[in-house]
Design a protein that fits this description.
about 250 residues, mainly alpha, Four Helix Bundle (Hemerythrin (Met), subunit A), 9 helices
């Protein structure tokens, strides 16, 4: 459904813009807790503000990418400390919020574009890879045993498999014209909580521990284990979902 976009953003208040955005939200079904309850509302506010400033979705994607890249460069170039931890966390959290805002802004403006979706996924892929590489480099500046360095190496593999599986599954379903769940579909809070280890927002918050490398490494490792477990449980189910796309259509 195409939104009824005012001729000029100034024709409505910020509150009215946010209110309209609520009707254009993606389904919450399966969304991890932080992304669903914190990042999406934060992104909604940023999307409304961006709309009123005349920004484009691609421009918001660029802002998201620059904030995340700045955080990654800080991790890469500095020694872990409390100050660095706070700066990095703030940049990553804000970058993630803008990552939510670009899609919401696109829907507010009447719908996104293939180029915009491509750009968003490319930025996300680069961010995921570079962040874990930066963690690897950052941990070499600490007194941690070198065996801890296996964590970011494993994490980057798991994160890439997860990302590719999600993107390819969505692409195949759309190629078969399978409709996504509607906004009216029940969104389980329990499911959102169970998928918390996979939440990129939680990974961003974990960097508050960056000033205490051992504590950070343990928390980072716990998130990695959670991602591995979720992926191991999810892959068979996702394979069955994709396999069902080839089933003959019943009449």
């Amino acid at each position: 459904m195409t939104s009824q976009v005012p001729t000029q953003p100034s024709e409505e208040t910020l509150g009215e813009t946010i209110g309209r955005l609520r009707s254009f939200q993606k389904p919450s079904r399966g969304a991890p807790a932080y992304s669903r309850f914190v990042n999406r509302p934060f992104g909604r506010l940023l999307a409304a503000a961006s709309y009123r400033r005349g920004l484009t979705p691609n421009g918001v994607t660029a802002i998201s990418g620059m904030l995340s890249l700045t955080a990654i460069v800080v991790i890469f170039l500095t020694t872990p400390s409390l100050v660095v931890a706070v700066v990095v966390t703030a940049l990553l959290v804000l970058g993630y919020a803008f990552d939510s805002a670009d899609g919401q802004l696109a829907r507010l403006r009447g719908g996104g574009s293939a180029a915009g979706e491509w750009l968003d996924h490319v930025v996300d892929c680069a961010k995921i890879n570079l962040l874990h590489v930066a963690v690897l480099i950052g941990l070499t500046r600490t007194d941690l045993d070198e065996r801890w360095l296996g964590l970011p190496l494993a994490y980057v593999v798991v994160a890439n498999v997860f990302f590719f599986t999600f993107i390819l599954g969505d692409l195949l379903k759309r190629s078969k014209r399978v409709q996504p769940p509607t906004q009216d579909a029940p969104a389980s809070v329990l499911r959102s909580l169970l998928s918390v280890p996979t939440d990129y927002g939680l990974l961003c918050l974990a960097f508050l521990l960056w000033g205490a490398p051992t504590v950070f490494a343990v928390a980072y490792g716990v998130l990695l284990v959670g991602n591995v477990g979720y992926l191991a449980l999810g892959l068979p189910k996702w394979f069955r979902d994709v396999k069902s796309l080839d089933a003959p259509e019943r009449r």
